[in-house]
Amino acid sequence: MINRVKKAILLYSVSFLFGCNTTAQKVKVYSAPEGIELSKAFAVKVEEQDVPVYKTKIPPSRPIPRLKPAGDYGFVSVASFDINASVTVSIDCPEKVKSVKILPTSYGIIPTFKGNKITFQLNKPGHVTVEVNGEWHESLQILANPFEENIPSPDDPNVVYFGPGVHDVTNVTISDGQTIYLAGGAYLRCGTLDGENEIEVRGRLRKLPTFILEGKNVSIRGRGIIDQSGIPNNIRRYTILAHKAENVTIEGVTIFDPSHWTIPIQSCDNVHVDNIKIIGWRGNADGVDISSSRDVLVENCFMRTFDDAVVIKSFEGYGEVNNVHTRKCVVWNELAHSLSIGAEVHENISNVLFEDCDVIHDVGRETALRVYHCDDAVISNVTFDNIRIEEARRLISCWIGKTRWTKTEERGHIKNVTFKNITAMSAPIDTTLTGFQDGPDWKPYIIKDHASIELVGFDNEHLVEDVVFDNVILDGEKVKAQNVTSNEFVKNLKFK
Fold first, then answer.
1. 319, 348 in Cβ contact below 8 A?
2. Is residue 444 exposed (0-12), middle (13-18) or buried (19+ Cβ within 10 Å)?
3. Which InterPro entries does this UniProt record tie to the protein (predicted)?
4. How many Å apart are CA 242 and CA 244, to the nearest integer?
5. Which residues in 292-442 belong to E strands, given as ranges?
6. Among 399, 461, 459, 387, CA closest to 425
7. What does the pLDDT look like over 371-385, one tens digit per residue?
8. For residues 56 and 143, what is the distance between their CA atoms, to the nearest angstrom?
9. In contact, 21 and 48? CB cutoff 8 Å
10. Which parts of 223-317 are beta strand (E)?
11. Does residue 294 contact residue 348 with C-beta atoms inside 8 Å?
12. Helix, strand or coil, per DSSP, at residue 106
């Protein structure tokens, strides 16, 4: 399989050498392949170089608290390039600019604008959202990557190399010591397979993922784009599955329109997910799902997801979860959770850190920061530290109970959870919207004036205990005991 793919695409290797432009080695811009429809909503330049602006689907413009999107959608514009120094970005808009918001606010970017043009300075790699004239939905994503290092050779027999241009891909599977590389300017259109197209994952047959990473010392990386929009809505396929693998690197690529979980990491050890960009709109189009794995680092990513963005799970018989770290990510979630554990927790989960992340929008039915336990294991030593949330309807939750996801008769435990140095603003209230209470069936609730904080244990034997709130700020006020809804099965709640 690898040799066949390489032979088909080696013709692109020469064009790769000329497929990007550099300005004094400050910036690299990769040309868009012919035949890819680009966005007409914005024109973008970096250091006076034209940047291709792609477009991809996003959820409906109005947050809808359902299991699946209503079927309508919008389009977001996406411009991507590499930088290794401070650069000037300029944007031409189709109408006169009256206001500009650049998120995350923590980046401290102050734009200037006149007429139809916006200009701002980008001092280092990072991923920003530009909202013009109050239009938050069909916004512009600026994805600024760092320069690549150790770019593999197309002639390396252990590399599946996709050069600049359009490639039609169904499935690529790699194992020990192998790499899938997507050069800048590569655009992979993902399709489906006829006939035998399933793989066993956690004892169940699933549609064959587009990419499968197995074995030791495996990676997928580059600056190319993976587009799953060609996969029908009734087919659910993982995009990149790391499965029973060790020493895994997933770095740099951009993923449009995932049809199911985008990057499931299942039964793996020592995994690094770095600078991945995900924009999805379909139901169950999660970002990174970490299950039954250990020593996992997720960092420097951008995720605009309809379902969970970064979530940790464990399944019976597939191993415990230990030492998972998520940091320096920008998250936009439109239905479920931004940074969370659960719902499925059948094996113990411990030593989890969510750190130094920005949640720029969280407007769905679920909770931005959550420990969500529906089964029988122990969740312990979890920290949410230095998290900045631009807007949320439900802010924090630690919850034990039974839901539609429950598989076990026995309930579990949640202990030693810290929420530290968190700043958040409540989302604007739309009284026509409702959310859903937890339980075996979804039950409606009315959105409150302030983002909710709840702690719910199950009974005297299955507690939420030893929860610390240390400098948690909601709507400019420090969170105190009276701001937290809890039941009698919550013990040792502390405020610092």
1. no
2. exposed
3. Glyco_hydro_28, Pectin_lyas_fold, Pectin_lyase_fold/virulence
4. 7
5. 294-299, 302-305, 310-314, 321-327, 330-333, 339-345, 349-362, 369-373, 378-392, 394-400, 413-426, 434-437
6. 387
7. 999 999 999 999 999
8. 14
9. no
10. 225-227, 240-251, 254-256, 263-266, 269-274, 277-279, 288-291, 294-299, 302-305, 310-314
11. no
12. helix
pLDDT tens-place string over residues 225-257: 999 999 988 888 999 999 999 999 999 999 999
Tokens of 494: 């502390």
- Average pLDDT (192-209) is 67
Rounded to the nearest angstrom, the gap between the alpha carbon of residue 176 and the centroid of all alpha carbons in its chain is 27
Between 174 and 307, the higher pLDDT residue? 174
**Run of H or E residues at 4:** helix 2-9
Q: Alpha carbon 327 to chain centroid distance?
A: 12
Give dist(CA 390, CA 386) in Å, integer: 13
Output the six-digit token pair for 476: 């400019």
Q: Are 308 and 289 in contact (CB under 8 A)?
A: yes
**H/E element, 114:** strand 112-114
Give residue for tokens 């970096």.
46
Locate all alpha helices (DSSP H) within 239-356, ordered by sequence.
Answer: none
Confidence of residue 5 (pLDDT cuts 50, 70, 90): very low
In the prediction, which pLDDT does 437 show?
53
Q: DSSP states of 331-353 as a string?
A: EEESSS-SEEEEEEE-S-EEEEE
In whole angstroms, give the CA distance from residue 235 to residue 192: 9
Judge residue 241's burial from the number of C-beta atoms within 10 Å of its C-beta, 0-12 exposed, 13-18 middle, 19 or more buried. buried
State residue 322 phi and psi, 5-degree precision: -150, 140
Location of structure tokens 């060609």: 230
User: Would you say residue 438 has pLDDT above 70?
Assistant: no
Taking CA atoms, 63 is separated from 15, 48, 444, in Å, by 43, 37, 15
- Res 14: pLDDT: 39
pTM, 2 dp: 0.91
What was the pLDDT predicted at 406? 85
Residue type, 399: W
Cα gap 227→55, rounded to integer Å: 11
Q: For residue range 284-341, what is the model confidence (pLDDT) as tens digits?
A: 889 999 999 999 999 999 999 988 999 999 998 899 999 999 999 999 998 889 999 9
**Which residue is listed with tokens 């359902």?**
66
Question: Which are the contacts of 261, defined by CB distance < 8 A and separation ≥ 6?
Answer: 238, 239, 284, 285, 286, 289
Q: pLDDT grade, residue 2 (50/70/90)?
A: very low
